Amino acid sequence: MSTTTSKAKNKETKNQQNEASPMVKLSDYQELDNKYKRALADQQNLEKQHQKDRSHYIKYANEQLLLTILPIYNNLKLAYKHFNLDNPSSWLDGLKYIINQFKDILKQENVIEIETNNQPFNHHYMEAVEIIETDNKEQDNMVAEEIRPGYKLADRVIMPARVRVYHYKHQNGSMPLDHN
């Protein structure tokens, strides 16, 4: 009878362990679930804060640049206000000074004017607004005139230069097909 009693006690002990095990696992699960929910809420709050910070940054990103440009704008308004027909050379000197101020700021901001004078046409930096026929083969595909300057910010074109471009005209009157 001792084996039967011992088997019964083992069974009873196993039943007690099985009943206690789910309770422990359930409490562990609830604790992990609470931690997960807190971590998820923290993550969502961080994302909201990041979005708020990002929109604030975008809204005020140009503030420093504007603070450097506004004094020049004020100088321009002042020059316009004080234009004097009797002494236009001093007014032009003031205007040159303002243009140089702009050039300095553009240089500080790493804005570079695209060189077009005596340059071959480059479709990456220039936009051809007119083709001018030429009998001089050496002028073929060269910039004839800059209509509007172009600019790069570091190595990215932010405004292509608008130019007139020479195109060599054959003596028979036709223009060669050049598919470079």
Could you characterize the architecture of this molecule?
The chain is of the alpha+beta class. The protein folds into 3 domains: 1-60; 63-108; 114-168, Head domain of nucleotide exchange factor GrpE (Nucleotide Exchange Factor Grpe, Chain A, domain 2, Roll). It contains 3 helices and 6 strands. It has helices at residues 2-60, 63-81, 88-108, and strands at 111-113, 126-134, 143-148, 151-153, 156-159, 161-168. A 3-stranded antiparallel beta sheet has the order 1-4-5. A 3-stranded mixed beta sheet has the order 2-6-3, with no helix packed on it. Helix 2 runs antiparallel to helix 3 (88-108). The longest helix has 59 residues, at 2-60.
> Total strand count, please?
6
Apparent shape: elongated
Uncertain stretches of 5 or more adjacent residues? none
Major sheet summary line: 3 strands, antiparallel
Q: Largest sheet, order of strands side by side?
A: 1-4-5
- What would you report as the Rg, rounded to the nearest angstrom? 38 Å
Give the SSE order as H and E letters: HHHEEEEEE
How many domains is the backbone divided into?
3
Number of helices: 3
Give the strand content. Answer: 15-25%
Percent of residues in helices comes to 55-70%
Structural class computed from helices and strand pairing: alpha+beta
> N-to-C terminal Cα separation, in Å?
103 Å
Mean pLDDT across every amino acid position: 85
